[in-house]
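HUMAN: Forgive my ignorance: could you write out one protein's sequence and backbone structure tokens?

ASSISTANT:
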Amino acid sequence: MRKLIAALVLSLNALAILLVAPAQAQQNPQDTVWIQVAARPTLASANQEAQAFAAKIPDVAGFSLGGGWYGVLIGPYTREDANRVLQVYRAEGQIPRDSFIALPNNLRNQFYPLGEDAAQANQPTQAPEAVASAEGGETAQQLATPETVVIAEPAAPALPDETRAEARRSEQRLSRDERKDLQVALKAAGFYNSAIDGAFGRGTRRSMSDWQTAKGFEVTGVLTTAQRQILLDDYNAPLISVGMRRITDSQAGISLEIPAGEVAFNRYEPPFAHYDSSSDLGVRVLLISQRGDKSTLYGLYDIMQTLEIVPLDGPRERKDKSFTLEGRNSRFVSYTQASLKNGEIKGFTLIWPANDEARRTRVLATMQASFERADGVLDDAAGADIQQDIDLLSGLEIRKPKMSRSGFFVSSDGVVVTTADVVQGCTRVTLDHGYPADILASDSQSGMAILRPTQSLAPMAVAEFSPQSPRLQSEIAVSGFSYEGVLGAPSLTWGKLADVKSLEGDSTVARLALTAQPGDAGGPVVDASGAVLGMLLPQGTQGRQLPADVSFAANAEAIRSALEAVGLEVQSHPSGTPLPNQALVNRATGMTVLVSCWK
């Protein structure tokens, strides 16, 4: 009964796949993708493989991949349908588990299926019936591929077949590493789950037999030379599809394998050598090369995390003489590694589009395994003629928050009071860009929010609140990041206390005669002694246009009540003795912190 149910499920899945393909003829060519199921080093072997796949599934085509390789693909489909086809065919064992989605711009000349006679050989080939467009129009296959001229080159001879005895003899000539490579490929294809030891025991033989069964070969448990080549070609298909090859950058002093079919050298901007995308896939590679010590390495670790190419979500680790960074968002995944040796910092960054994890993982592992250092680093003067931009670091865009405002420390472990609007709609809130913080409380009515850093901080100064009501027209100052962190440090804006209540008579809000900038909101309002009188509120937007020198602040009593509500005690200022100007500046700016909201 279970076999009957399984057969019915497979039949329904196959029917779903057949129904997917014909709909694709109406799609824009740029919206279509293919599924690559195999890659072969000769035209003859690729043709043979394409015919084998075409005998069991529809929509099979063959294209040159460049570099002497030929791919067997199915499609074209929309990306959504391709993901469904990939899932179903993998589950049914119709295609290898390492099959992946390929973009049409990476495909070259089509070699399968061929026309009916030689006169048609140089004409665009007809797509399989399942993907033909309605009313005899162009097929989606023709629309999705940049070239559809049949390759006019002689077929290279395929590897000869071997008897079981011949296969055993050729197998005996394999090195231990070559045997391990076969086990790795069998494991990646889902047929082997034991140790990679190069010993062909019962587990390895069983996996070879299962692989032969899946491929339609005679089941012997011993792979022929041709079968070993097919197995390794399937395993290496992700690398072949992006043109992996070793490059040596003598100026950077680095040699490694990169996806050379997807990136090309663009420029030097120390400490980076930029290898930018050369196709629609959007892959980028940076080589990191500079002189330095531990401080330089740690500084690079911090700086890299401020760049757009390193999204905030993802693991990161800094060791004594090395670091790794991984960042992910809905568009791409980036990985960076760098290490210090003999006064030289070297490494690389790989930026890869999201939802292509199988290929990214293989490419990254190959780059890591092939990375080699040579003497020399990038010249600091390289790229000096490149146009400079304050929002760029060595040609890379610096990540900018959705909004930044000011805040101030109210406890010795780094709890911060700030304005409520800066924490609304954020996926992440940070203090001084680098320290994540959790929201303890946020009240839109009072306009205040209370934040606790995820790790304890040691502020230069902590707010001490005035125990008495300030005098009208007394001098006050606001400490804040007036330009949302552009200047890198807080500054003081001077003014006077105009009233102890708002224009509406709210006694929890003071009116100030002070011209503030948007970035100052959330900063502490201090008197001449350095005591905190309140927190600057953002300018209201209720359809009123007030004079530029009218500002408002939540007073000390309102802040004290909000802190006590979350179980925090406040510190009172011991006396009202005025401070010298520089001492007042140091105290006010020492308690002020930049609060940033990130998308």
